[in-house]
Amino acid sequence: MGLFILRRFGVMLLTALCLTFIVFFLTNLYPNLEKLAKTQGNQRMSDEQVQTWLDNRGYSDPLLTKYGRWLGVMPGFTNTLNDGQFVGTCVRPGLTPEETPRFCGIVQGDWGYSTRFKADVDEIIWKRLGNTLYLMMWVMILMVPSALIVGVLAGMREGSRTDRSLSTFSILSTATPEYVSGVIFIAVFTSSTVGLKWFKGTATQAMEQPTFENFFLPVLTIALYGMGYIARMTRASMTEVMTAQYIRTARLKGVSFPNIVLKHALRNALIAPFTVIMLQFPWLLNGVVIVESLFNYKGFGWVLVEAAGNNDIQLLLAVSVVSVFVVLITQLISDIGYVYLNPRIRIS
Amino acid sequence: MEPLGTFEIIIRVLYQLSSVWIALLLLFALSIAFKRRLGLYGKLFDSPIGMIGFALVMFWVFVGIFGAMDMIITHDPLSQVSGMKNKVPGTPLAGAAEGDYAWYLLGGDNLARDVFSRVIKGAWIVVQIAPLATLFAFMVGITLGLPAGYYGGRLDTFLSFLANLILAFPVILLFYLLVTPEIVATGLPTMMAIVLFMFPIVFLCVLLNSRYRTQPAFRTPLLIGVLGFALWLYLALISENGYLVRSIPGLPSVLDPFDIPGGILVVFVSVVFVNSPTVFRIVRGLAMDIKTRDYVAAAQTRGEGPWYIMLWEILPNARGPLIVDFCLRIGYTTILLGTLGFFGLGLPPESPDWGSTINEGRKLLSIYLHPALPPALALLSLVLGLNLLADGLREESLKD
Fold first, then answer.
1. What's the domain range around A10?
2. How many CB pairs under 8 A join A and B?
3. Would you call A171 and B387 a contact, using CB atoms and an 8 Å cutoff?
4. What domain count does chain A have?
5. Where does the chain cross the membrane (chain B) (predicted)?
6. For residue range B46-84, what is the model confidence (pLDDT) as tens digits?
7. Does residue A198 belong to the interface with chain B, where contact is any CB pair within 8 Å?
8. Interface ipTM above 0.90
9. Is A34 on the interface with B (CB under 8 A)?
């Protein structure tokens, strides 16, 4: 088991390296750098000015050198411009040229400096990730229990009327992407002209003081899309368990139906959905980006959109590292958890 | 001219769609009449869920096709009529000339364009791109997944690592990195297209060659014919103004009947790119399962080549789950296209596709509902139809 986890961590590091390199490559393509130069410098720069701007700040160096600098295995780029301005990859406001460290990269624990927000990347990421984690927490609290209840109720008696209607509901919810359900919810519940006016159409205030009124719709929108899938998986696994021999034995023994479901079937039926729930995290990230832009909630997804829109290389890299680790760690947890939940499987 | 009431709007929309109803009725009448002779497709008409799903899907397919032939739309989806900005459904057209349709059936959007016509035109974009992109993703996934599952070993480890690599990318981040005008300017999407569009040709070539290898007299002309046509199509798809990528010469413009605008190509390529690893994983799993069967052992004993076994023994026996996944995946691709439109990536901003229209409509959502709701409901119903269709197919294919 220890070896298994260790190997998975190795693969994880390799994947993260490859992925960040791809992101690095894409963000360092010349048109992207040109855009960066123009947003940072000014929009009317000529081609030569763009070139000198990039040369002066070390953006024109070979790709591997730049990647090495970001990792912290190569010394950072420094340069003093003609007007005496000291620039470079490790330069931060408030540090004199003498205080600026020679290496600054992931290895040194420095995630870089955001050109969009003019702040340290890890500061931005932690702050915004906090907002998103809070959102995710409520999504999980709403989504997981209701999906499991829907799935178990539907799978309990296959083919019954409850099963039919709950299955239709779960298919409907998987067919409604967040940007559709969000728009419909806003139209129905918040619109000032015709709607019910139960909730608020934006979650901007929810960052400081979340209330049911301004926070429920974003949570519901994300939860609904993921819910159908988990419910369908739970239903499938529940119907399978309900046809098992030991359930029949229990019935013949005269155990009451609620007892069969709660004490005999449920534990075995929840193994498969566990994996699905863990693997749902990466998909939730998608939903988070959509919902955060729809409801104007400034979290991780909002940072992603801002960073990508402004080609903020170091912020974008940090965003991708975080999201890649979320994906890979949930995969790892789901594998390990599966082994613990299902003693029939052994990893050798 | 009076504004239309709700009832009248519904009647007029239904009337506008009459060609679609006729086509749907014909299709269903014919299919039900001959359902016993149509295999799995015919069996679909035994399950009510499958039938509802199929009806929804075909409705949008017909809307897309007839809409592209300008049979349904009432106004030009791009033209702006002054005085019609954000007007509610059923508003009479301001300054209507002779021969113009006199109302905006579903109202006008914030640029004073007809919402109804835009939704209809948007259907065509989805109906064109989604199935085709899914098909390409399947070709890529099958061509790589079959050998990975069949041979296993190093090849499998390497390909699985690559697939997991792409799957570990959050889709939105990938879209934000790939689908930008800057990336289109570098020619990277075209290069990806060159690689990805190669797979269907390889697939076809191997498929036919492994089947007719023993009859060279038949195989050689067949391969030349099919490959020639496929290669021409391939070059025509990729090359623009006689060039593949900037300096590499491609197909001369004389032989190049159609150009795909860079925006559409990058959307297409990135959707294929995102979908193929999942297909790869499914095909690989199926191949690993099926290769232990007796008929595969029998074929190996007969001395059949590995590609024959993969493509003519394993693949046909994996078709059930693959067809079901194909339907689900078209739905997922539709959602992805909508996501791209929603973030304003790839397609031009005035494009009538549903995602872009929702994106535009949401900005004024709390005051005007009508521009955003029709495309949202359209997308919902199409994806729902595809999901129901997949469910019906799964149910029916499990029966035998």
1. 2-110
2. 138
3. yes
4. 2
5. 13-34, 54-73, 123-146, 158-179, 191-210, 222-244, 264-283, 326-347, 367-390
6. 888 889 999 999 999 999 998 888 888 888 877 777 777
7. no
8. no
9. yes
The token duo for A9 is 């961590």
Q: Give, in order, the Cα–Cα distances in Å from A152 to each of A24, A273, B386.
A: 45, 11, 25
d(CA B374, CA B370): 7
Interchain CB distance below 8 Å, A175 and B338 = no
DSSP state of B71: S
Q: Are residues A102 and A158 in the same domain?
A: no
User: How far is B202 from chain A, CA to nearest CA, in Å?
Assistant: 27
Q: Write the DSSP string, B286-303.
A: HHHHHTTSHHHHHHHHHT
Please say whether the beta carbons of B384 and A175 come within 8 A.
Answer: yes
Which of B170, B361, B384 comes nearest A323 by C-beta? B170
Closest C-alpha among A319, A238, A333, A325 to residue A277: A333
pLDDT digits (tens, 9 = 90+) for A273-309: 887 787 777 778 888 889 988 888 888 888 998 888 8
Collect all residues of chain A within an 8 Å Cβ-Cβ radius of residue B342.
179, 290
DSSP letter (8 states) at residue A261: I
Question: Could you tell me if A94 and A185 lie in one domain?
Answer: no
Q: Do A328 and B168 touch (CB under 8 A)?
A: yes
- The total number of residues shown for chain A amounts to 348
Within 10 Å of residue B78's Cβ, how many Cβ atoms?
Answer: 14
Q: Are residues A28 and A145 both part of a single domain?
A: no
